[in-house]
Structures are given as structure tokens and as C-alpha cells.
Amino acid sequence: MASKEEIEALIKAKGDEIRQLKAEKSEKDTILAQVALLNELKAKYKETTGEDFGPPPSSSKKKGEAKKTDGAPACGLKVDPRKAAKEARAAKRAAGGVDQATSTSSNSGGNASDAATSNSGSAPSVPSLESAKYGNLPMVQSLGMTDRVWGRIDGLSPSRAGQRVLLRGRLHTSRAVGKGVFLLLRQGIATVQAVVYQGPGVDKGMVKFAGAVPRESVIDLVGTLTEPREPVESATARLVEVQVDELYVVSAAENVLPFQLEDASRPEASEDPEMPSVGMDNRLNYRWIDTRTAANQAIFRIQHGVSQLFREFLSERGFVEIHTPKLLGGASESGSSVFTLTYFDQSGCLAQSPQLYKQMACACGGFEKVFEVGPVFRAEKSFTHRHLCEFTGLDLEMAIHEHYYEVLELFSDLFIYIFDNLATRFAAELQAVNKQHPFEPLQFCRPSLRLSFAEGVALLREAGYDASEMEDLDTEKEKALGRIVKEKYKTDFYMMDRYPLSVRPFYTMPCPDDPTLSNSFDMFIRGEEIVSGAQRIHDVELLGERIDAMGVPQETLRTYMDAFRHGALPHGGGGIGLERVVMLYLGLKNIRKTSLFPRDPKRLAP
User: Can you tell me the distance from the alpha carbon of 563 to that of 480, in angstroms, rounded to the nearest whole number?
Assistant: First the structure.
């Protein structure tokens, strides 16, 4: 290991090299690279000596030098003045002072300096971080770690009044009032009011700086938690606020955003149609901004909840999570709606379902009960409110002993578990969605309502619809049946079984009492399908007959059929569309709202 003296010599030499490069007007990238090496040497010096590199502090103060404090509070941003000033000056010399708090002195506290601005958004000129408790932080580049404790807004409560807190979040709004500025800090869907008011420890410059920080910038706040005189109705943390005495910009947003969050957050049923609104395409083009709204944060947390609860429920019942291939040599279900690709010297496609592989794992591979959460690809040019070319499938497959109703009963219990836990564990998120997208809470029965396909057709006919027991229902009839079922049975969630065999895939088991029907089922929320499932054929001879009857070449399914030649358990299962479940549960009108970066026939970016 190099000695202290050797490292000092290296640092001095590197400093001379940087000055020479600057004098020669070398490329900016070259200078920045050497500055980075200089910082590494300084870090090595501190690791070796336990001290920051630099001459010892002067025992006497220069006139006008800011008084140094004895130390930052335990939760504060412990900025080393000499190191911050040196790094800021080096970075400014190399890159024109962009995104750095600047200083004009060498070893001691500096005077106020100009040109401390961010290239991505405007921020006022500020004093160096030596003499001010506010400004633009140097770029976070993982130079080290501290013992600071970072707080969460949703963990703030009146019982903590008087405590010091350190928070990082986005600046949601700011409002100047007299000698102060009211800030609303946001973390996810949680917000808290922070007050920067001129007085002891907070000068006029800090108030001015706070008022000029662009909305959506990432900022750090340090202050004292207090109880406001009146609840803060604009914040989720209504019973507390932060009296700020330190404020730093971590990453400044541009002053002009593609759209304002308040416009993107406006309730759908706004009383004033003249107010600005944000169209779907604009939202999706800048999805990373759109997802910052409270409703969208909540939607995707609820989506996370659905998949989490799906995993919880099945794992507790002995299911094994599997991961099936998405690169296939042929269509998953011998359909034509697949994305084809070249797989080295072969033709391939993206999986439109894990169907065949989950059967092979469950019935033939010895796992008996399996599930998967993974992407599904459908090359269908469907420009509807409920179709995507890529979505997330929640699939399960299980061995059965006597009847495929074992699968239906499990699905019923699964969805009741999901619905119950969403209501209790995601209440705040549901409230956030309801505020912008009002919806009626889902009604469902215990156990779930089960109708036969023939009974569903009969209900439609009674209502005047032309429906056949041998043809599948189109979207219009499914929605109509949903309204009829809701009125008659008081439920938004139900299932139908015994569909015509002709409208189901080749691997579906025929009904034993009527070969024109099948041991299959669909499940619905608010009149739209969310699950399709069935008992599968586990006899290889019957499987071959059904493949031939559907006109599918057996050679394309050779490995799948071979799996059933070595003994297969009777089994069944189904697949759930995650985005569609969330859309219908929340009563949303477009599935693109529940897909983080949706893929439809016209959208492949972002």
C-alpha cells in the first residue's frame, strides 16, 4: 500500500497535469477523466490517513468569511467544506461550472459566487456549500456512504414532532408567500408540506433559491418536523409539516415539461371541460412523467399487488413457480398470431402462451402444481380498449383427481383472496385511483357465481339477444351478459363453463356427457373476460385425434405429444391477463392505462 507521502505526491502531480491540460485547452472529456482520477486519489488518501486531503485549516479567519458550525445535525448532509469547494472548482474549470455549487476561495470559506446553475433546469446563483445550507449538490457518483438516516413521508406522524428529518423526493409544487415559500414534497403517492421561511438559520437567499427550483426536480430537505395549526389538505401527510433549514437540488428538471402533472391528474369527470387535459398519446410518449401522477402510481402498485397476491396464494398451496421459454420453434397453441423471428439458422417465434410447457411441467414433469408470471406476445392487429401485443400472463396448471371443478374452485378462492386483500392492503392506492378515475367497488359472491354456457345464452335470449349455444359470444354479448348477471345476481365477477368444443383449443378435454361441449371455462369481471381455462387432454391418442380434427400438423407438436407418451397426470388450469384484471377491477376504460410501457400494433416506443 502506498504511503501518505507517496499519495500526496501523486495528487500534486495529477493536479499539475490537470492544470497543464487546461492551459493547453485540451478536450473536455480528457480533463474530466483526469479530474475523476484525482478524486480517486483523494479518496485513497482519506482511506489511508483517515483525513481529507488539503492543507490544515487556518487558525485565523479572513474578513467576511462565513462562520463555520461545529457540525451538521445527525440527519444533515455532512458536506466537507474544503472537499466540496475543491471538487466544485475542479469540475467548474473542466466543464464550465455546470451542475456544481461553486466557490472562489482556495482553503477557507468562500464568498457568494455566481453561475451555480443546472443545465437541465434553472436555479438561482447560490453561495458555496461552505457558507450556505442550500444549493445544487455535486453529481451523486457513489464516492462514499454515510450513516445518515433517510426518511419516508408515509412514516411521518405528529408523534415525531420536534424531530429532525432528512427527506429526498420530487418538488410537486411551490408557492411563495411573504418571506417564505411553501413546498410540497412527493414520494410516490405520499406528499408532505415543507416550509422555507426567512428567519434564524434561513436567509433571504435561501428563500429565493427555494422559490426558483423547477417543479419535478429531485431535492433533499433537512428540517424539523412540526404540527401545523390546521391540517394541510393538499398533502397526504395532513397532520405534519417540515420547517426546512437545509435545501439541496439533487437533479433539476427542465423549467418547461411536456405537460403539467396537475393537468395529467385532473379527474375524468371534471366539472370544467375547458381546463387543459392530456391525451393518451402524449401521456404514453412521456410515460415517465405520466406515471408520476398519484393515480398512476397507485395503479401500478395495485398491479404489483395482484401479482404478489397471486404468488402468495398459490405458494401457500404448494404450487411451484416456473419459467417457460419465450423463444419457440412453433406457435404455442398452433395459432397464426405469432411474432416470427430468425433463430440463428432456424425459424422461430415469440411465445403467445406458456400453455404447452406448463402442461409438460405439471402433468408430465412431476411438479403437479405450477404457476408462472411472465410476458405473453400476440401478433394481433387489434385496436381495441382491451387488447395489447405484449402483456403479462398469470398462468397456473394443476393436477386434478376427479373433476375439473377442482380448478374452478381454486380460481374462485384465488380471486376472492385477491379482491379481499386489495381492499385492505391497498386502500390508499384505491382511494388515489378513485379520486381521478371514479369507479364502483367490485361486487362478488362467496363462493363465486358459476353458470353454464347454455345458461348464459338463455339469459341473453330472455333479454332479446340472438345467441347460439354452439357459437362463442362476441364482445357485445359478453358485456350485455355482464349487465344482466349484475342485475340478477348482484355480482361483477362470475364464471361460465361447458363451452362448445369447436371454439376451444385442441388440448381441451371434451365433456363426457356431450362430445360437442368441453370441460372448459371462462371468468369475467364487469362483463369482460379475464380468464380462459379448461381440463386438458392427458391421453396421447385422444390428443392426436383432436390435433388432427383441428387441422394442425402433428409434426409441429412432436415434442409436446412425446411428453404424454410416458405417463401424464389428469390436469387443468387457466391463464389470467394481468393488465386486463387491473383495468376491469378499477373500472378503467383503456388497458393502456394499466400497461407500464404498452405495446399495441402502432406503438413500439418508449
Answer: 42
Does 378 qualify as catalytic in the annotation? yes
Per the DSSP assignment, residues forming a β-bridge with 328 are: 349
Domain identity same for 126 and 180: no
Catalytic residue among 120, 125, 251, 532: 532
Ranking 27-36, 103-112, 504-513 by mean pLDDT, the lowest is 103-112
Query: Among the residues of 401-471, which ranges form H helices?
Result: 405-425, 427-436, 453-462
Rounded alpha-carbon distances, angstroms, from residue 188 to 277, 299, 421, 430, 603: 22, 11, 21, 14, 27
Catalytic site includes residue 532: yes
Catalytic residue among 130, 372, 478, 529: 529
Clarify whether 387 is annotated catalytic. yes
In this structure, the answer to whether residues 122 and 169 fall within a common structural domain is: no
In this structure, are residues 519 and 406 in contact, taking their beta carbons and an 8 Å threshold? no
Question: Rounded distance, CA 120 to CA 98, Å?
Answer: 10
172, 283, 378, 498: the catalytic one is: 378
My answer on whether 481 and 532 are in the same domain is: yes
pLDDT in tens, 31-61: 777 787 888 888 888 888 888 887 544 444 4
Please tell me which residue in 82, 292, 386, 498 is annotated as part of the active site: 386
State how far the Cα of 242 lies from the Cα of 180, in Å rounded to an integer. Answer: 13
* Reported pTM: 0.79
Report the CATH number that the domain containing residue 185 is assigned in CATH.
2.40.50.140
